[in-house]
9522_t:CDS:1 (Paraglomus occultum), 288 residues
Amino acid sequence: MILAYSRNICRFQLSISIKHQLRCFSNTLIRSNIESSDSSLLISQWHSNISAYSETCYDTITPTPIQLLNLTLDRPSCEVLPSTSTPVHPNYHLAYFPTRVPERKLAFDGYSKTFAPPHPFSQRMWAGGELLFSKNPLRVGDNVKLIKKCSNVELKRSSRKQELVFVWEDRDFHNEKGWSLKDRRNLVYMKKEEGRANSTKIVKGCLVHGPLTCTLLLDLLRDNLPADNWINGFKYRAVNPLVVNEPFRVCGKKLERLDEKGDSIYEMWAETALGGVAMKGSATVNIN
């Protein structure tokens, strides 16, 4: 069965096994010139300094950010303000804890510089991540503490000999009842190389934000689970870029086998307009 309605070039599809959605989004990306450096020594020294640093901040789970995100994604009941104690859906914690610094202190792409490597590694992409959820979800009305730290750094070279710095940033969220969730982000930083950044062989336009694709995959999974099932975790990796104003599809399937804890495993992925894989991940679901 296929459902379709016009939203620019966006359509929605529904299959018997699991729903596939096609969407387009707008985004911007600014680039600047970067210089080269002694990368190995530079990153080693920076890693030594940043690994000892952590940051703690606080926020309150108010209903408006959740509703605004629901409205943006056109979710069911999006016009209803969530009531007190409503659980925050997987990855909707992104609506909270905005970076609280003046714009002049942000990176050129608008992201926090807290765990960003030093110049010239300033061109950032979202490589993937992992989400771990307890059965103590964040809820509307909770006062929440967030602890951020850098858990790992690696300097690598791409197949084209480009130097890449992979940074793992851990974000642990705690409410009044204790630990709630971990958001482990894997970001990759690189140097801009002249003649390459604007090449259509690399990027044809502005990119869809990686966490947005991740959120759509988790929404798809949640929409197809019984109400008493619980998403324990989701590990994902960006494979190819999704480009703004091009349709894409989010997909998933349940595997026959269980994990070592007896939880169900779901493979999730996002497809480009041409059918290539843009993001793929694996979710574990507790069956009650």
Q: What stands out?
A: The CA atoms of residues 239 and 278 lie 5 Å apart. Confidence is low (pLDDT under 50) at residues 1-20, 24-37, 194-201. The first strand starts at residue 12 and ends at 14. The domain at 1-29+205-288 is CATH 3.10.129.10 (Thiol Ester Dehydrase; Chain A).
